[in-house]
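Purpose: get a first structural picture of the assembly so the mutagenesis plan has something to point at.
Setup: two entries, given in the order below. No constraints added.
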Amino acid sequence: MIAPYADINLIFHALGDPTRRAIVERLSKRGPLSVSALAEPIGVTVTAVTQHLRVLEECRLVRTEKVGRVRSCRVEPAGFSALTRWVDAQRSMWERRLDRMNDILSEESE
Amino acid sequence: MADHVSSPVHSTFTLERVFKYPASRVFGLLSTPDLKRRWLLEGEGTSISKYDMDFRVGGRETGHYTIKKGSPVDGKPFVNEGVFFDIQQDQRVVESQSMAIAGHRISVALITFDLAPTSDGTRLTITHQAVFFEHADGPDMRKRGWEALMDRLEKAANAGNA
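Result (structure tokens, whole complex):
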């Protein structure tokens, strides 16, 4: 199991770069993809994509594996869960309670 | 030899929210046990074994629950206990609320719910004054508490009205 905040610095560093965000977005919509299929539409070299993928793999937003001669890339849920947990923890429990109050009130008026 | 007793930590915060509903409806969230159970304890990864509320001055509120996997206090029994001190229909509720984890009381709070009509609904102001003790309030929980506090400070600084 990952500690709740273990990867968060790496995750924000990784997502702070527009090319890496483009890689994650493309893999979310189209994945899994090979490194070259990933590089072409984003308009960067295979070498550059490989470097970006290493950063994304390190914080577990993306996973790559060699299938035959091709490296296949896909999104990895672990990093996203860590990100979600971090965001959730930033909202106070009482803010969430107020949200739930509003949900109950709007249900009642239906 | 008794456990080391550290200095208690005090914290007060205020939250405000305007609901587009009349005060009687918002008050219903505070006075109806089934509704209060839902917004107070449900939806936080909790498994609730007991929730009782006797909504009158001097009446008690009790919640027994555990927090599901992934939390640092995974599986430990939580007990919330409170007493209502002031109830003004559609206007105000003042109650105490203590929290214990695995038999150790970690905090006691005085919570004021203040309802005021606005042009299009009701403004609910929650003032939460609490003292936190040692024991089960481990570093991680303490950290979360402070992060939430910092979040509120930041919001207040940025917006003035969150």
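The mean pLDDT of chain A is 84.
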